[in-house]
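Subgroup meeting minutes
Present: P.N., E.W., G.H.
Scribe: E.W.

1. P.N. recapped why we're keeping a running log of single-chain structure predictions: easier to compare across weeks, and new members can see raw inputs and outputs side by side.
2. G.H. added today's entry (293 aa).
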Amino acid sequence: MSGFAINPDVGLWQKNAVLNGKNSYYVTDEVEGTLSVKTMLSGRGHWITPDGRHSLEEGAYLILNRGQRYSVDIRTRELSETFCAFFRPGYVEAVADAAHHEPAGLLELSHKTTETSFYERVNPVDEFVWPALSRLRAAVRRGLESDLEADDLMIGLALGLLKANQAACTEAFQLDISSEGTREEIFRRLNRARDFIFANLSESLDLVSISSAASLSPFHFHRLFKRAFAETPHEFLTRLRLAKAKRLLVSSVAPLAEVSWSVGFEGPASFSKVFKRATGVTPLQFRKAASSN
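Output recorded in log:
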């Protein structure tokens, strides 16, 4: 195992590392990166690859593969904070290899997940990567005790990535398309549409605009999206909007109308109706309960 660095000036290809910074304007030229996980702790940032523009806010993460070329574009009125974890080459492969040699049934990872290629898409909070990222953020904030502790945390994050990729592979296979090339291309387009939804949560979205992002006809797209992700585009959009609304209700004192508009609802009435149907309480009741805990 190699060492670990926080905000290194150079050497992202030699060590595992974390880049954590605050800025209201941060625009880079295109670079070729190592395997990394991008998150925003506050504000909004964009990672641009040849395949498209990946927009990130708090509550989501993006995986970029080793060798991927990308640039970063952050331009916000308030300070935005990034938190990005980088793996040295070969690290995740070693973790995957060790996992495959565990006793049968202890860890189920398909052959696909042992490869270093991950689906490059924006992902919401999940049970695989997010807890490991949260532990790493907390440790960096308080100060890492040693490289040994850093390896504990980075191994946990690597395992989370492998499990998340296994889940994504399962989604792709739900398309039930015999040609692997066609299946991967369709799944890539569906993920591009997911990223479009992430990038436009506060906008008025319809099936035509979302399916256009995937270069698929609306009804064909709707059927394939539901088959792969087990929810319709509308259900996915609503889930993301409510998750963001919950964060805003807890972290700010913004009026209910402002929260509802910032997550794409027409107004407080429609927002409250959808929120209560999903959670069993009104937004104001949710905020009051959160503030009392």
